[in-house]
Amino acid sequence: MTFFPHHLPLFLSFRLVAVALEEEIIVSKLGDNATLSCIYQGRKLPLKNLRVYWQIADDPEECSVVHALISGQDNESEQCIQFKNRTQLFWDRLESGNFSLLLLNVSQSDERTYKCVVLQKTEYNKVIHQAEVVLSLAASYSQPILSGPIRNSDSTGEEVTFSCRSGNGYPEPNVYWINKTDNSRLPPSELEITPHADGTYSVFSTLKVKATSNMQIECSIENKILQENLSANYTHLKQSDGSGTESHKNLEKNGRGAQAAGIVSIVILMGLLAVLTCWLWRRRSAKLVSYTGNE
Ligand SMILES: *[C@@H]1O[C@H](CO)[C@@H](O)[C@H](O)[C@H]1NC(C)=O
Ligand SMILES: *[C@@H]1O[C@H](CO)[C@@H](O)[C@H](O)[C@H]1NC(C)=O
Ligand SMILES: *[C@@H]1O[C@H](CO)[C@@H](O)[C@H](O)[C@H]1NC(C)=O
Ligand SMILES: *[C@@H]1O[C@H](CO)[C@@H](O)[C@H](O)[C@H]1NC(C)=O
Ligand SMILES: *[C@@H]1O[C@H](CO)[C@@H](O)[C@H](O)[C@H]1NC(C)=O
Ligand SMILES: *[C@@H]1O[C@H](CO)[C@@H](O)[C@H](O)[C@H]1NC(C)=O
Ligand SMILES: *[C@@H]1O[C@H](CO)[C@@H](O)[C@H](O)[C@H]1NC(C)=O
Ligand SMILES: *[C@@H]1O[C@H](CO)[C@@H](O)[C@H](O)[C@H]1NC(C)=O
């Protein structure tokens, strides 16, 4: 099971304060195993006098038993089909009141609020502990790749296209295009979110704007669950100062061109020298010949 060490504690404590003390948020990755926590800290009771039920809290109609422990034994008779062979209690922890549930191979349909109910069996059943766990699935998006237009010195006023792509994330992202000059949002001209077989999404978005001499554009991919924004920048400053991504690329290209031109002219020059040398040599020999002939 993968937690997200950077984000989880913050998110958790935030939700714990904002909601109820007994509710916990677990963030798990698709296909991983999730541990839903249920800790009873009261006085120790023999397992055979307890019943522990894991249920779906937000929709008890759909599935009333995710996992049941009755008289110290797993009881599968009422377990919902979608959880068959996918749940385990931690047997070495039960005696100490740790009734956490291991849920194997989580998928989108497991994104529910779960409830753990611990009952003490006397003449009647008494609830001695309850806990709720919200299971959220998430995966970080990859660092977005932003491509900007290759611009010549003066394309001001022309329409230019930017594109931004990212992938391997969950759930569906929000995409923001931002004009860094005044921090305003720009509406995307195209937004494509593609689901993949492994449950993750990839995203592709384009932005069409009228070019200005100084352009600073940012593409930002937001993962709401992880409270994470990943961004990529495009900076194009006025050509004259030589900074800016594209001008730099152009400079590089021009540099290579100049080098090639230099090599070509050297070759031509050497050729010319050779021809000249030949010509001078033959003129001299011709003179010698005519001289001899005249003698
Ligand atoms: C989940 O748990 C099962 C059984 O304990 C184990 O075989 C599997 O490798 C685990 N999967 C992951 C992604 O940790
Ligand atoms: C499961 O529980 C039911 C009633 O709650 C009981 O009839 C059955 O014997 C139990 N099964 C096992 C394997 O304990
Ligand atoms: C659970 O596992 C048992 C034996 O390992 C198997 O017979 C049964 O078909 C499985 N049930 C589901 C719903 O996968
Ligand atoms: C309960 O058991 C689980 C599984 O072994 C463990 O990860 C967790 O830390 C335990 N919690 C407490 C409070 O002991
Ligand atoms: C995990 O669940 C998915 C469906 O949600 C299934 O396609 C896959 O085979 C399962 N993997 C394992 C290791 O059971
Ligand atoms: C970005 O904002 C600046 C300042 O408001 C504005 O001059 C420029 O046209 C904007 N660029 C785009 C591409 O909208
Ligand atoms: C991500 O960026 C957008 C646009 O700037 C902003 O509205 C949103 O609040 C940011 N989200 C987070 C989690 O920082
Ligand atoms: C883009 O610029 C913003 C602020 O201008 C900065 O916080 C962010 O780290 C930059 N991102 C990249 C990938 O350079």
UniProtKB/TrEMBL annotation:
GO terms for biological process: regulation of cytokine production; T cell receptor signaling pathway. It is found in: Membrane. SMART domains: IG. SUPFAM superfamilies: Immunoglobulin (SSF48726). Pfam families: C2-set_3 (PF22705), V-set (PF07686). InterPro entries: BTN3A2-like_Ig-C, Ig-like_dom, Ig-like_dom_sf, Ig-like_fold, Ig_sub, Ig_V-set, IgSF_BTN/MOG. GO terms for cellular component: external side of plasma membrane. PROSITE patterns: IG_LIKE. Residues 1-20 form the signal peptide. Its main location: membrane. Keywords: Immunoglobulin domain, Membrane, Signal, Transmembrane, Transmembrane helix. GO terms for molecular function: signaling receptor binding. This is ICOSL protein.
